[in-house]
Design brief:
Elements lengths: L1 H13 L6 E5 L3 H7 L4 E5 L12 H9 L3 E4 L7 H11 L5 E4 L2 H6 L13 E3 L3 H11 L8 H12 L2 E4 L5 E3 L4 E3 L12 H14 L4 H23 L6 H6 L1 H10 L1
Parallel strand pairs: 1-2, 3-4, 4-5, 5-6
Antiparallel strand pairs: 6-7, 7-8
């Protein structure tokens, strides 16, 4: 799903990242590169299904060392190699890492990953991804209350958790923020990829994980609200959220 990576990259630029590089499977690179001329791309080795291969890990780690923040997951698919890659990234003590989409689905199949977590991680699951993460770590059933789900996951894992949905929950296991911006029109394909790019950009500008996540979900939702006011909720697309990020940032700054 090359569009997912492209949306995250473009959103990161709109959220203030000075330099964005999108590393993707070689066969997907022309599509990703054509989406946005203002980020650069890195070709990665791929398997026979076109997914990023385990052979790409050294190229990925070399790129990580040159950057301030990293996002992993949008559109990557699932495989044993990708599980190894996400596990390796979370064992690095370097840049902060945002894990979203299939990054979370791969992570859910890695046993005991919190014990090896060294990275400053931000996890951004939607309810389905949270259920899979929970099943991989806990014997207890997933609590009904969203806030409890997020707090327990953050406390157990040591990561910042952003549980997406109506009233997105952001927590480090102690502090909790419930977001008030956003609207039903944002429940559209690619919206989560945009949020990933926004949070990653804010991490790259020096915010800590909790603050970057709080500001990221607020600005993301506000851009969606402004877009819906202009275009209507029915017609809202993920690219519209990106287009209205600049106005949302100005409004947030001046409020």
């Amino acid at each position: 799903m090359s569009g997912a990576a492209a949306l995250a990259g473009r959103a990161a630029l709109r959220a203030g990242a000075g330099l964005v590089r999108v590393a993707t499977a070689k066969s997907a690179l022309p599509t990703v590169a054509s989406f946005e001329p203002c980020y650069t791309t890195i070709p990665l080795d791929e398997d026979t299904a076109g997914r990023i291969s385990g052979r790409a890990i050294n190229a990925i780690l070399d790129a990580v060392a040159d950057n301030d923040a990293l996002a992993f997951g949008p559109g990557v698919g699932q495989s044993g190699d990708l599980r190894t890659i996400v596990q390796t990234l979370l064992q690095q003590e370097g840049p902060a890492v945002v894990v979203d989409g299939d990054g979370l689905n791969n992570l859910a199949k890695v046993r005991g990953w919190p014990k090896r977590l060294k990275a400053k991680a931000v996890l951004t699951p939607h309810p389905g991804e949270m259920k899979r993460l929970w099943s991989g770590l806990f014997r207890e059933r997933l609590p009904e209350k969203r806030e409890q789900q997020a707090v327990e996951m953050a406390a157990h894992s040591g990561a910042i958790v952003v549980l997406k949905g109506a009233g997105t929950v952001v927590t480090d296991g102690q502090k909790v923020y419930i977001n008030k911006t956003g609207n039903p029109g944002m429940a559209t394909a690619g919206s989560g990829d945009v949020l990933t790019g926004v949070i990653t950009a804010l991490l790259g500008q020096g915010l800590d994980g909790f603050d970057a996540a709080v500001l990221g979900v607020y600005i993301h939702g506000l851009a969606g609200d402004i877009a819906a006011g202009q275009l209507g909720q029915v017609s809202l697309m993920a690219t519209d959220i990106i287009d209205y990020l600049p106005r949302a940032i100005v409004v947030a700054r001046d409020s």
